[in-house]
């Protein structure tokens, strides 16, 4: 489902919006489910009286699959709940065009006591659209804010829906979805007699069939379109626009063709380099120099050309660089130190010949070194958590507080609703008339239902607390929307078992003390696990240490074995 939002300025009035929504000639059918032209104009008058810049909020939603009027009206009501708008003072119109339906929701910017919310509305409207698609089983439409929507759904407790939206997030190197034109641009071109969607499709098809910018410009010219550099060169250098022959703007090249701006700049650079590389005919290069002497000039009646005598340049003299006096002093001192005797430490000379071993002995020694390496690996083993970075206290506590803030707010709001209903019920019990009319019984049922909802929210918040601090391996189960009396015993039992955690989440001071205590326990538990691991592996390491000592003793060369080659015999020395 595609949701688009636009704000109508107060000075513009409601006339153009009313004509488009209530009297669109291109629609097959128009059904007004709520509101009227008078309601929109009255909202504009209220905004003008309050001094607001914007008077109306126009939200158009177009589902990908077929939706009934009741489903479209329900979706409009959920949009009002998200923006905290009054659903009783709206204008809801359903348009039918080419067999499909879409809706137009018009809200007043002035909501009797506050201004309609406008903070992150694009993301919030897309979030409601994704939830509606999941609820109705429609295909999810990817948007530009899927990452933020998934994060917001997790904070609200919709974990399953958040995972489905997170699957729509494109890869980091891919481009995010982007509209080719705005609804205002489409309305302007329609008033000028140009079908913007058809022209956009034409431009995209021409670009797909072109092999470069030159052929694309030629294809545009065949259909009466041109491409030129945009007027805002200072803010958007290199941007090009496409327009008709009479100057009607169609759109930006990169938006219409879905080409990245970096790739388009490369295409422009290649086009400019190709234009500069074309050979140009220079007629001056075909002239032949002619020298006319004085006799020929007298015969032809022309003045003789005076050719200046060019002198041969003397070769430049090679100048040797001047030596720095400090460098000369350093070089002189080094030369003096050449003959100075140096004192070298006496070291035992190494053997001239290696130890002569047989192939079997060499194989045994190599196997002994391998066994020593295996035992050394056992000695080098450490506990799995010993190499982890130490926990930063302030950073960890700040992360826990930030994660628990939305759960605290949700718990506070649920408890506030329950306490308000309980107060109204107690007041009704004191009234004899309300007991006789049954109003007190109705308030009691409402209070009991809100108590169940509060216990369910308490269960969700406590599970979230345990998951954040690491006492629960899985995320909390989502809040169940429907609760009955059969769920009460389990919820009350959970409340009794986790009463300490409930009081912690209800009181910020207790929560701070509890988180500090939990952090200390976490650090102590890690140290205890490392200590237990070292104690459990101590016998194994001691055996490895003894085995290394035993194996190294086998590598020691006996004193009777010499590393040198045998001395030559006296007979061989005499012969030499």
What would a concise description of this structure say?
This protein is α+β, with helices and mostly antiparallel strands and 576 residues long. It contains 21 helices and eight strands.
Cα distance, first to last residue? Answer: 104 Å
Radius of gyration: 44 Å
CATH topology of the domain at 2-141: BirA Bifunctional Protein, domain 2
Q: What can be said about the biggest beta sheet?
A: 5 strands, antiparallel
Query: What is the helix content?
Result: 40-55%
How many helices?
A: 21
Strand percentage, roughly? Answer: 5-15%
Per CATH, which architecture of the domain at 2-141? 2-Layer Sandwich
Query: Numbering strands along the chain, what is their spatial order in the largest sheet?
Result: 1-3-5-4-2
Q: Judging from the principal axes of the Cα atoms, what is the shape?
A: flat
Number of strands: 8
Find the structural class using helix and strand composition: alpha+beta
What does the average pLDDT come to? 77
CATH class of the domain at 2-141: Alpha Beta
The topology string of helices and strands comes to EHEHEHEEHHHHHHEEEHHHHHHHHHHHH
Unreliable runs:
562-576
